[in-house]
């Protein structure tokens, strides 16, 4: 039986890649495979994707993390098997991508959370 879920849209946040920005952690939409940055990132593209599309389920796109999240219920859950890759490349930095991460990235994220 073929997997009903699409593969990820790429190795990084779709919108950050397009704008030349950077991200902290990545999330993958279960429904369409869109990869967006997490809410601890400057741009919060995964949540924006949910707000725009109504695709309510995401999975972490970080190595070693297997959790899923339901935006509507604001709860974690055990999800289905998704097609690989299940995380960004292991040599990709966090935050990333390395060539766009500013030296003061941690200060920027701390200020964003306030």
TrEMBL record:
UBP-type domain sequence ranges: 1-94
Residue ranges of the TM segments: none
Source superkingdom: Bacteria
UniProt feature, compositional bias: Basic and acidic residues: 101-114
Molecular function, one GO term: zinc ion binding
Sequence segments annotated as region (Disordered): 79-114
Protein name according to UniProt: UBP-type zinc finger domain-containing protein
Source species of the chain: Gordonia asplenii
Lineage, uppermost ranks: Bacteria, Bacillati, Actinomycetota, Actinomycetes, Mycobacteriales
């Amino acid at each position: 039986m073929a997997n009903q879920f699409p593969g990820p849209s790429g190795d990084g946040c779709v919108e950050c890649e397009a704008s030349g920005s950077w991200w902290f952690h990545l999330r993958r939409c279960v429904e369409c495979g869109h990869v967006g940055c997490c809410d601890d990132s400057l741009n919060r593209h995964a949540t924006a994707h949910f707000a725009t599309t109504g695709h309510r389920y995401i999975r972490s796109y970080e190595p070693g993390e297997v959790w899923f999240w339901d935006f509507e219920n604001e709860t974690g859950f055990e999800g289905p098997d998704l097609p690989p890759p299940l995380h960004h490349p292991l040599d990709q930095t966090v935050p990333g991508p390395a060539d766009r991460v500013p030296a003061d990235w941690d200060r920027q994220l701390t200020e964003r959370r306030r």
